[in-house]
């Protein structure tokens, strides 16, 4: 088991050696989607980021319990305690039951994320399925003096909590800043302070999703679900909590307060936050209306797209940036990702054709060490990819015969190169889900066989004609000691 893994902990603002609490068991909780619309490119980034974390930890031998929630109640339209529930709003507009909306978009989300080859989480709990656990947590907060009830709603008392603990330690904010930057109450709110937040909300007459409680009919606050479900499935203290940077405040800050207010313990050892995907430098998201859904990316049916992009191209595009950095969308970047991915995948096929020599002019120990070090350095996938391209250069030299490799080294190289691409980064062969690619392969095999026969008959004019016509069609041929190879350029 690798003990040199360093994770950038948002709470400490530094990379810390990863020491799981219940080694070798690792508990990981990631905030999933609010299911009221189609999954878009912004949803893809946390899904892929934490899929790689999940894959790599498992690859190292850890027993990982990966919990990713589905928010299907309580997420209000302005991400605070006011406005309309996002799912209820969608249900009203489409004249459907709220759970019809939840079911439809949960299935849609699963299809899109599965297309990106993200492994399913170990557990995927719904907020609406854990009302009892959330009510129990509300009562504990009341019993511990960190919450108060008013007119059927229960609010977390941030000021009182901050007297004993540090509210704002994750985001770096303090009470004075919160007070200065939060609008003053208009005299009609039930809150003591504007920065207090609801852990249980009284349901108004028009609110459809409602449950009986000791405080009246209502529904849980958005922040409460993650605290309740992570505790249920991972315990009072667990290893990793992940999510997008946009959730750092107030959502994750409130989670810390709720957990400490309930158990007296900091629930999370490592906080991880992926950064945003931007378009023209602006955050991509539903609220801004500039998002591109994953189905639109896969089909090419969006005004901003010049072509359709395969799920693996999208995955590779996202992995080319370190998860904590911003990533700007453009057609040019996606097209470059498509070509880069094709090159890496071609390396796998080339490796399969290589024959071992008695001697070896290369040693792959340094390659292996560099690749693991890139991933150990806070899952630095762009550095890993750069090392894989370095190795691709060596693979091509082996194919051309300018380098040699013995059987032991070749077997090791084939496994390592394949493992990093498929098992850890979670990429798939672009042709695996593309029937037209299979047809093209069949046609190209016939064409290359005709060209080989022309060369054997010394009909150089015919062989050159085939090569030149393929070049005009966007296909290049390269001759090697193992025969002719082709690729689309």
Task: Tell me what you see in this structure.
The chain has 489 residues and is of the alpha/beta class. It has 3 domains: 19-274, Rossmann fold (3-Layer(aba) Sandwich), CATH 3.40.50.620; 279-424, Isoleucyl-tRNA Synthetase, Domain 1, CATH 1.10.730; 435-488, no CATH class. 46% of the residues lie in helices and 15% in strands. The chain has helices at 41-59, 86-94, 98-115, 131-143, 158-164, 175-181, 224-234, 248-263, 294-299, 311-319, 331-353, 365-376, 381-400, 407-424, 435-456, 460-472, and strands spanning 6-9, 14-17, 25-30, 63-68, 147-150, 153-156, 197-202, 218-220, 238-244, 268-274, 277-279, 282-283, 327-329, 475-480, 483-488. Strands 4-3-9-10 form a 4-stranded parallel beta sheet, with helices on both faces. Strands 5-6-7-8 form a 4-stranded antiparallel beta sheet, covered by helices on one side. It has a 3-stranded mixed beta sheet with strand order 12-11-13. Strand 14 and strand 15 form a beta hairpin. Helix 2 (86-94) packs across helix 3. The radius of gyration is 27 Å and the shape is elongated. 38% of the residues are buried. The mean pLDDT is 90.
